[in-house]
Amino acid sequence: MNRLARCLADDRAAISAWSAIPDPLYLSILATCDFDAVTLDMQHGMQTEASVISGIMALAPRGKPVVVRIPVGRFDFASKALDAGAHAIIAPMINTVEDARAFAGACKYIPVGERSFGITQATHMLGVSQDEYLATANTDTLALAMIETREAVDNLEAILDVDGIDGVFCGPADLSISVRQNIMPDVYGDDTRSIVEHMGKTARARGKVAAAFCTDVPAVELVHSFGYRFISYGFDSTYLSKGTDVELAKMSFR
Ligand code: 3PY
Ligand code: MG
Predict the structure, then answer these.
(1) What are 148-171's pLDDT values in tens digits?
(2) Residue 86 CB neighbour total at 10 angstroms
(3) Alpha-carbon gap, residue 70 to 84, rounded angstroms
(4) What's the pTM value of the predicted model, to 2 decimals?
């Protein structure tokens, strides 16, 4: 069982790095950090189709599960990222049952979905045989639907009940923008906190994964207290800049 799946099976929070920097060298170093997974962000991060495939090469053979956030509606690439060896896909802006069905369909094989067969690269990256991969593909690769609009919240239960949707991933910035109708995000603010709590508890009650995006430790603690067990933390650009600043600040003469 991979490290992400192990955390979820044990009901322990899996903390994922969030990577926007499309560089396999950087990712090979991130692979040595104590994150439970690394998420490669194609929606707002600078990850591309090519960098996701090379990023998986830098991470998966080192035992680091890879999660890919695809751009809006790019369900074709959800399948391809899984074929490259990703363990989970996050799809942004899943607002309706139809969105959720199309997403799950691309991630899951029959009888759940219609993922097309072609896993040579995944078997090499994950060090498994074709038979081993296929035996657990529909259960071990996760399809996480981003809930980040008022419409998605209204459809939360129905989206969670779509066969092949393994959980929901809370996008707190867009959620606050949509709920407050204000382009200034109020991440995990007063107007959305109870929605976030409801989302986490509703997913858990259905035996599905509650996942969320966080950029600071208080937010991680908050969503953890609501039952979220896949939590992304920060950005790779800030790991680099903050880590550097912490080290430089230790110099007494500066
Ligand atoms: C959001 O908070 O809206 C996100 O999509 C996180 O990246
Ligand atoms: Mg968003």
Answers:
(1) 999 999 999 999 999 999 999 999
(2) 29
(3) 14
(4) 0.97
CB atoms within 10 A of CB 97: 14
Total structural domains in the chain?
1
3-state secondary structure of 72: coil
Radius of gyration of the chain (CA): 18
Counts for the chain of helices (H) and strands (E), in that order = 13, 8
The reply to whether 55 falls in a domain is yes
Indicate which CATH number applies to the domain containing 92. Answer: 3.20.20.60
Smallest-distance ligand from the CA of 69: 1
User: 168 to each of 28, 130, 201, 212, 238, how far by Cα in Å?
Assistant: 28, 28, 11, 8, 25
Tracing tokens 């382009």 back to the chain, one arrives at 183
**Ligand 1, residues 19, 43, 72, 148: which to mutate, most atoms within 8 A of Cβ?**
148
Structural contact between residues 187 and 220, judged by C-beta atoms closer than 8 angstroms? no
Give the integer Cα–Cα distance in Å for 212 and 239: 19
Q: Which ligand sits nearest to residue 18's alpha carbon? A: 1
Q: Is the CB of 171 under 6 A from ligand 1?
A: yes
pLDDT category, 233, cuts 50, 70, 90? very high
* Residue 223: HSE in the Cβ half-sphere, 13 Å Cα cutoff: 35
Collapsed DSSP state (helix, strand, coil) of residue 38? strand
Instruction: Find the 61 Cα to ligand 2 centroid distance in Å.
Output: 29
Range of the domain at 95: 3-237
44 classed as catalytic: yes
